[in-house]
TrEMBL record:
It comes from Amycolatopsis iheyensis. Residues 2-62 form the HTH tetR-type domain. This is TetR/AcrR family transcriptional regulator C-terminal domain-containing protein. One of its GO terms (biological process) is response to antibiotic. Keywords: DNA-binding, Repressor, Transcription, Transcription regulation. GO terms for molecular function: DNA-binding transcription factor activity; transcription cis-regulatory region binding. InterPro entries: DNA-bd_HTH_TetR-type_CS, Homeodomain-like_sf, HTH-type_TetR-like_transc_reg, HTH_TetR, Repressor_TetR_C, Tet_transcr_reg_TetR, Tet_transcr_reg_TetR-rel_C_sf. Residues 25-44 bind DNA. It holds the Pfam family TetR_C_1.
Length: 194
């Protein structure tokens, strides 16, 4: 059966979820598809192009922004949707950090954010910086947390640092931190907009 880019991309996403970005290779992908590497290269010229296809596939879901909400509500909705998209696939945040946004799916996400910020009255310079800040916040929120052993080692080192030790004992989850960070950023943007 002849290969097409959609099949290749879907198989690559499955492989990404299974082995992670560090172990993803065109050789492994060709084996998964039951073809030789040269056959795969007829459709995807190299690993960089494969990663670009994967980044686009990860961002395939469009943001559904309720434009009846105010700018803050629209941004919050977009940030939550972007995070949900990233949580669907292993190492998605790392992948997006490594590959520039060149395809229509990723550019549409950027366009949505830029439109909301511009409509809210932010300058071009502020919009450019704020969009990067928001992206960095979401990407950081889906990074792998330290394992339990590493967290324990850090807590043991905090014996002489009582304020830091109290912080280390909090029970904030990654979801809690994302919500808190989003609120803090949006509060700051509201102040800057005044």
């Amino acid at each position: 059966m002849p290969l097409d880019r959609r099949q290749i991309t879907e198989a690559a996403l499955d492989l990404l979820d299974e082995v992670g970005l560090g172990e993803l290779s065109t050789r492994r992908l060709a084996a998964r598809l039951g073809v030789s590497s040269p056959t795969l290269y007829w459709h995807v010229k190299d690993k960089a192009q494969l990663l670009d296809l994967l980044a686009e596939a990860v961002c395939e879901d469009a943001f559904e922004i309720d434009e009846t909400r105010d700018w803050r509500g629209q941004l919050e909705q977009g940030l939550h949707q972007f995070r949900a998209i990233l949580l669907k696939h292993r190492d998605a945040a790392t992948l997006l950090r490594q590959r520039p946004p060149l395809g229509p799916n990723r550019l549409a996400h950027i366009e949505s954010t830029a439109r909301i910020l511009k409509d809210a009255g932010f300058t071009n310079e502020d919009t450019a910086g704020i969009a990067r800040l928001l992206t960095a916040h979401v990407l950081a929120s889906v990074d792998e947390p330290p394992n339990a052993e590493a967290a324990k080692a850090v807590r043991e080192k905090l014996e002489g640092y009582p304020a830091a030790r109290e912080l280390a004992l909090t029970t904030l989850t990654a979801d809690d931190l994302f919500v808190l960070g989003t609120e803090v950023i949006l509060d700051g943007l509201a102040q800057r907009r005044k």
